[in-house]
Amino acid sequence: MVGSIFGWLALLFAGMPVGFSLIFVALVFLVLTNSTGINFAAQQMIGGIDNFTLLAVPFFVLTGHLMNSAGITERIFNFAKSLVGHITGSLGHVNIMASLLFSGMSGSALADAGGLGQLEIKSMRDAKYDDDFAGGLTAASCIIGPLVPPSVPLVIYGVVSNTSIGALFLAGAIPGLLCCVALMVMSYFICKKRGYMTLPKATRREQLKSFKEAFLSLLTPVIIIGGIFSGKFTPTEAAVVSSLYALFLGLVVYKQLTLSSLVDILKETVNTTAVVALMVMGVTVFGWIVAREQLPQMLADYFLTISDNPLVLLLLINLLLLFLGTFIESLALLLLLVPFLVPVAAAVGIDPVHFGVMAILNLMIGILTPPMGMALYVVSRVGDIPFHTLTRGVMPLLVPLFIVLALVAIFPQFTLLLPQMFLGYGQ
């Protein structure tokens, strides 16, 4: 079994897609071990994606693409500029605030980086901000999206670990806000040191105008979150409603969507969904074999021989995720390691909601670290910034994110407070 895992890593580094490599390794293992389980491999793969909650993923992805193409990102950016553009740090704060607002609609880090990124970098360049800071901050701020609801990674974690999606959505809100504040503090000091310009303070009339223009867009997270926690929608139904609402805004209200752009949006959504579905299928059949071989239990026993202190185990798990996240795509890592690590966390009394938010924050930091930093590649492409320049710019911004990660790991109250208040979670 260990040989199969190393074989999968070899295929991954050779360039084979994650889903295909997992399925290939699983089938080879079953053939070489003369296992009768190969008859059930296809059933396991289909069963992995035959899940109502997972239907939320394509619709949240569709919502993000619709928002990017419907003129919504510019309205959000202008609203954020009217709120915080006059503070020292100016467009740096605007960048972070816009990412926070947009994240409540798309739930995806890369959708944020690809959608808002081009607009944010252009505005910062026009104001004479250096490329390393403009690109690095754009990449760093995009990780807020997967923490605050709606969040595609939180949905996937909830499905794989059989954890309440509603509780996870609430649990990610405070860590997401902490990341926002921490990045703003670092942005303030960097901008002050480099002497970047500050925008004039917006008048009340300008603030009101930008709010009116962005108001219908800002209703999207209200519809999603309010619908879920009022009991009107399941997370999947909320995803469908949000995509229909984004379509309505783009076609009827803002009138910036065309038939050709809709076709392109649907193609992008199908491509993204297919990649996720293939990963889920591969992880399901691979995870089934791993569970049958009792590898999670052996891993839990091994960790417990090191220490049964929850903080020590969280430190070890965070170091493991940070190391692997440097080389392996974050979603693949989430799907692969959750079945291993959740039993380890449960064995020492770590709450699955707390653990899930911490793990996703860790993995989102991973998309900022080379050589696999996917957010860096996206920002490099949309902003036409060399990869090494982005790497230099993002490094100081990792410091506040690591501090937030440490706080979230040590103090579960940051994640569990809202689920306990609004859902009675754990009571």
UniProtKB/TrEMBL annotation:
Keywords associated with the record: Cell inner membrane, Cell membrane, Membrane, Transmembrane, Transmembrane helix, Transport
Signal peptide: none
Domain TRAP C4-dicarboxylate transport system permease DctM subunit: 8-414
GO cellular component: plasma membrane
InterPro entries: DctM, TRAP_DctM
Membrane topology: Multi-pass membrane protein
Residues spanning the membrane: 6-32, 52-72, 92-113, 133-159, 165-191, 214-233, 239-257, 269-290, 302-324, 331-350, 356-378, 390-411
One of the Pfam families matching this protein, by short name: DctM
Major localization listed first in the record, in broad terms: membrane
Subunit structure: The complex comprises the extracytoplasmic solute receptor protein and the two transmembrane proteins.
Family membership: Belongs to the TRAP transporter large permease family.
Protein name: TRAP transporter large permease protein
